[in-house]
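Standup notes
- HV: blocked on the assembly model, inputs below
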Amino acid sequence: MNQEIDQQESAAPRLTLFVTGDAPRSRRARVNLKAALQTVGFDPADLLVIDLVEQPEQSIKRSIFATPALMLMRGDGSIDATYGDLSDEEKLLDFLSPLAH
Amino acid sequence: MSATEWRLNKRPTGIPGLDELTHGGLPANEATLLLGDTGTGKTVLALQILAHAVAAGDGGIFVSFEESPDQLKRNADSFDWGKALVDSEGWASIDARSMIGAEFAGAFDIDGLLSMIEAQAQTLEAPWIILDGIDQLLQHQPQPQLAVEQIRRLNERCESNRWTLLLTGKRDSSERLTPHNLEGVEFMLPTMVLLSARVIDGGLGRFMRIAKYRGSSHVTDEVPMVMTDHGVTLPSVYRPQSERPFEADERRVSSGIESLDQVLDGGPHRGSSMLISGRPGTAKTTLAAAFAEAAADRGERTLIVSFDELEGPFVRNLKSVGIDLGPLIDKGVVRFLELSATSGVNIESLLAIAEELEDFDPSLLMIDPVSALMRKGNSVGSGPAVGWLLHRTRASGVTTLMTSLSNEIDPEGEATVDKVSTIADTWIALDYNVRGGERNRSLSVVKSRGTAHSNQQRELLLTSEGLELVDIFEYGTEVLMGTARMQKQSEEHFKVRRTNIEAQRRRQDLERRIEQAHSEVERLNAELELQAQEDKQTLQLEQQFMQRVRQQRTHMGSSDDSGSQTT
């Protein structure tokens, strides 16, 4: 999974969603994100979803203390993150604006 | 479930005073919330608890939401327990600073954090888990109840994972118990500790209060908290373990001044406290130092705490009145502790003394003057501060001497005397008596518990050989001193001599008269004897005469017979 992220780092902006199992907020985040990605025109297939219950080492590696967490890796390697169930649509769209065509 | 499982187990924190305050420590396998303003010592307290745990072989995880791991280490390293903590591999830190300024778009879980801690804590047996600055994370929850709910879940994890959890967070300086973003958390967690800081007369006073401790008795008062090189201490509640149960000691501590010991029935009791009060220049320090020197001469360790003077001048000044502490200090029998009397919060001074008491373990403690511990702005409160100190010294059998200024123009001194004199076992008041152009020092024992003592003033003489108490000179209802005493003494002396001579003269006179009477008796006896002799001779002569007469009469009697016959 790591490798996947690393491989794609140099390419176009990458989006990763960190969730914890099937927790209600994680589920809500997936739904909210899916809707927003449609709005900005980002292919949901390009979204990487990492479950921290399965891979707890990822939470340390990425310093993720709150879930769900959405990370945006830009082409220049800089990372933006936003946390929460992504129910604040305005904030979410603002966060995703670099992906918009 | 066995009886021991559901019972509240407490874990000692190793913070001097906190385990006394909580009657044993913080709850094991539960969460404790530590709230306080910025700069109240939350992080240091948490680090110190961790250091204590690590030193005892327990493990821990420190999740820092505000400081980097290097900052944490530097912070710890400024305390004497810090190096051991920094060098130890018994704990791990997690850098959670990424939450500062993070963007949040809705409610969140902290499962990521929990799984991270679980992964790290796997190898640790019943670890301490510290989440330092948890408010940095939880303040982003859109509703406070979500944050509180997460804290409740944390608490549940503690029980199942056997974690002892310490959460620290900022508290806004409002009147409310908890910050608005953690509103209601006080109902959720079993234990809450509050830290606060106030500037008192220019000094920073820190305080701690146990706001809540479910299922346990605890001290509910706000107590002062002090931070030194040794870390955090709560001096007013801390009871060192070495403390022995108090036993009344019958032994006396000699002052080294025979005449003073006599007044005090041999000296104050060992382990008792003595207040020496007086106006400036009444030789308070000198008198106390005499005790100190005497104790040190006997080989007893003596701690001199001076707020007024530096060691050099202190020793020099005493040398001029025959008290030489220099060699005793060199030998290590006397230790000198210079403290600043101008510091705003005197709890630090109190603590410095307490530390020396533990480190040096003296038999005698001299505080010159004790009023310095009682200045306004003392966060402990002046009465309790000295009471606490005396409790410590009394319990460990340390005899305590305190000097205090008493002066109309110094209300502080008066107040000190007021307060300390009620606590102290013995109170010696020094004064001057001005009379006939002289100022003479006087000493009187105002009270002395458990000791027969004179209620009269004595004259206190400072000579180059040391102190001396001169026996009071009573003249009618007065006690005379100095020249007046000497004058009166010589007057009295002459008077006594005159009386003596008079009496002798009268005795001699009587003796002479007895002598005279004796010789008269002798003379009369002789006369009597003479008379008797004379009487005897007279009788003999008379008898001889009568015999002669009778003889003659017999002779004539024969003729008489015929004669009568014839007639």
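- HV (later): unblocked. The interface with chain B takes residues 18, 20-21, 23, 25-26, 28-29, 32, 52-53, 56-57, 59-60, 63-70, 80-88, 91-92, 95 of chain A (CB under 8 Å). Residues 1-10 of chain A have pLDDT under 50 and may be disordered.
- Next: hand off to the docking folks.
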